């Protein structure tokens, strides 16, 4: 499934650029890449905070990592760097349900 997402996004090169940008933002804020990604999703709701992702955890060590996203606030330069890469991405398109069904 993840291979298909990478391909829909535009291939390995853009995927690696996104991961590099996320890693840079994570280093700046001293959090994990996953915390940055989680916070980015959370901030898509704007000031109202209307986007609340459902987060899964495989172990207790994920609790602190996920909690670090709550105290993180991505600034304008963080968002611009992430959005610059995403603006060049081809996809994926549609909702996750249609993608998982192969549509």
Structure description:
This protein is an all-alpha fold. It is globular and about 35 Å long. The two termini are 13 Å apart. The protein has one domain (2-100). Helices cover 59% and strands 0% of the residues. The chain has helices spanning 2-9, 12-29, 33-42, 61-68, 76-87, 96-100.
User: What helical percentage do the residues reach?
Assistant: 55-70%
Hey, roughly how much beta strand do the residues contain? under 5%
Helix and strand run = HHHHHH
Find the structural class using helix and strand composition.
Answer: mainly alpha
Supply the number of helical segments: 6
Structural domain tally: 1
Question: Between the first and last Cα atoms, what is the distance in angstroms?
Answer: 13 Å
Question: Would you count the extended β strands for me?
Answer: 0
Report the C-alpha radius of gyration, rounded.
Answer: 14 Å
The overall pLDDT average reads 84
The major pleated sheet works out as: none
| Coarse shape | globular
Residue windows where pLDDT falls under 50 for at least 5 positions? none
Top keywords for this entry?
mainly alpha; 103 residues; globular
Please render the helix and strand layout as text.
Layout (H helix, E strand, L loop, with lengths): L1 H8 L2 H18 L3 H10 L18 H8 L7 H12 L8 H5 L3
């Amino acid at each position: 499934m993840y291979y298909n997402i990478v391909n829909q996004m535009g291939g390995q090169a853009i995927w690696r650029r996104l991961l590099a940008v996320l890693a840079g933002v994570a280093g700046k804020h001293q959090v994990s890449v996953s915390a940055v990604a989680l916070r980015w999703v959370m901030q898509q709701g704007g000031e109202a905070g209307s986007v609340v992702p459902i987060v899964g955890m495989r172990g207790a060590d994920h609790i602190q990592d996920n909690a670090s996203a709550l105290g993180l606030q991505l600034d304008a330069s963080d968002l611009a760097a992430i959005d610059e890469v995403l603006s060049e991405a081809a996809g994926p398109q549609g909702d996750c349900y249609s993608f998982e069904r192969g549509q």
